[in-house]
Amino acid sequence: MSRHRPCVRRSITETxxxxxxxxxxDPRRELPGPAPPPIYPAPPPAYPAPPPAYPAPPPAYPSPPPAYPSPPPxxxxxxxxxxxxxxxxxxxxxxxxxxxRPPPDEVAAQxxxxxxxxxxxxxxxxxxxxGMRGADLQCYREARMAGFTTTFRAMLSNNVQDMLRIVHxxxxxxxxxxxxxxxxxxxxxxxxxxGQRSTRPLYSxxxxxxxxxxxxxxxxxxxxxxxxxxRAGDYCDGWRSNYAALSAMAGDxxxxxxxxxxxxxVSCDQKLIVLCVENMSKYHGDRILKKKRMDAAMACSAxxxxxxxxxxxxxxxxxxxxxICSIIFNLLFIYYCRKDLFFHKNCRVLIWALIATNIxxxxxxxxxxxMQLVQMFTVTDPCDMLMSAVLCYSLRLPTLVCFGxxxxxxxxxxxxxxxxxRYLSSYESSSSTLGFVLAVFSITSSFALTxxxxxxxxxxxxxxxxxxxxxxxxxDISATSYFVVAVEAIIILLFGCxxxxxxxxxxVYDLRSKYQAKENLTVVRLLMPMLLFHFLxxxxxxxSYATSYSIRRLFPSDSAFRAYLAAIYIVPIYTACSPLLxxxxxxxxxxxxxxxxxxISSKTExxxxxxxxxxxWNIK
Length: 620
What we know:
By secondary structure, the protein is α+β, with helices and mostly antiparallel strands. The chain is built from 15 helices and twelve strands. It has two domains: 112-280, Mannose-Binding Protein A, subunit A (Mannose-Binding Protein A, Chain A); 291-602, Rhopdopsin 7-helix transmembrane proteins (Up-down Bundle), CATH 1.20.1070.10. Helix 7 packs parallel to helix 14 (571-601), helix 9 (389-422) runs antiparallel to helix 10 (433-453) and helix 10 runs antiparallel to helix 11 (474-505). Residues 1-108 are annotated as: Disordered. Its main location: membrane. Residues 116-280 form the Collagenase NC10/endostatin domain.
């Protein structure tokens, strides 16, 4: 029996592991005994199995051995086994489509800050609160003493302010809570429109319940408003009077519902509750301040690049040079040509107005460019270059008015010459009132055109380069410039019509009519080159601005593009060249008049030749 035990143990092992390959028989150790059950030999594996990525956990309960071994998998000889990789493949993880959510603490902080507080003052007040500013100041002081960093204002209406406008528009849908953060109203709109008020208590800044504390015996609140937060008309003389004869609208906290519902006028000598409300939640306030800080940081970095860009300095220096030349040339024109304007007084008023706009435009543009050029060489901190948008607009507005006045004055000259052509016989004896009226009309219409072109100007930001052509005003200024060029072309056609009619009416026998018609011809000959030059300059200027933003990508940086925009502003070149051109035309006109006077005053054989040479019907 002892001899057959190894054989039995061997058969049990083989039965438990049917997939194992049997060892070759050893004749030396072969013992007689019962034959083992037949086993199907498994073929050798074509590829070794990969190691498991993670070891299998041990079974909770061992499984019993199978009664009969299952046959191993067989593969046909002409087919290979499927390939097994020796290492696991790495599947690429796609990038998330949405930003991950912030941590729970940050979400809770945002939710906690996105609310506006409604808190009562620590003492009741009558109608004399020293005005709205006094009530707002008291809310501000008590809020600071309570530890609030936001701004509180009195929830009151007066003759210049509706209670609706106290809270910033961004927080009109923000929940309203008490000093402990407990919900009072669903939103500020609900406060104004008699929304349902919760049963949570309303506290003062010193955390006392105004409904249950005897310090406020009268449970009504001042607000001076009607439904919707609109001023009601009764507010104790602007909250400056406590006379019993005066009254103001007040709401009752004991009535369930809103704060403004069933408001009744109350005598101003009674002391009621005064509520204070945050004008902006901390959430929106931090967002606005953060945006302002980011804008200021970006502006400072852009200012540093602007200061270091040499072509910008060169362009600004050239503009200053032409502005100085323009002032000098216009003053010389006034000094030398004031006696050469042999025109009617109305026409002379308009020409002097044109010269004055040249001087004012050049002086202001030169001052702006000179101030900024000095700052570029002297400032140590780039943020010192920043100026208020309101200051920049106030400096650029006169230059834009002068820019448009050239067009409107040319139009006024056409109107003045048309009136002179209509009244040839009596226009010479008229006064200069029409000239001043047309000059005022020119400036006013140019001012209106400028206001339209800059109606979308951003007055809240700060800029390092003072210009009126910003992203918000670019479209309107471009449309205004196109309008200027179109009207200038129409003015040229009108001047041609006036010249043709004056040429026809100059052949008359009346001395006054003939003189006025010739004056019209002289004025048109004088101003026609000016109009053509003005049209050419402004057409090039508008065309350059129209194509500048289509070639924006050709510039390597914003500083290069900004220098290009400054370089195509050629209005100072026009204001410097226009008096030279006008003076040259007047000089030629003076020479022609002198030659005509010499010809007339020269000795002739017959005195009648003088008359017939000047007033004959066929001599123009």
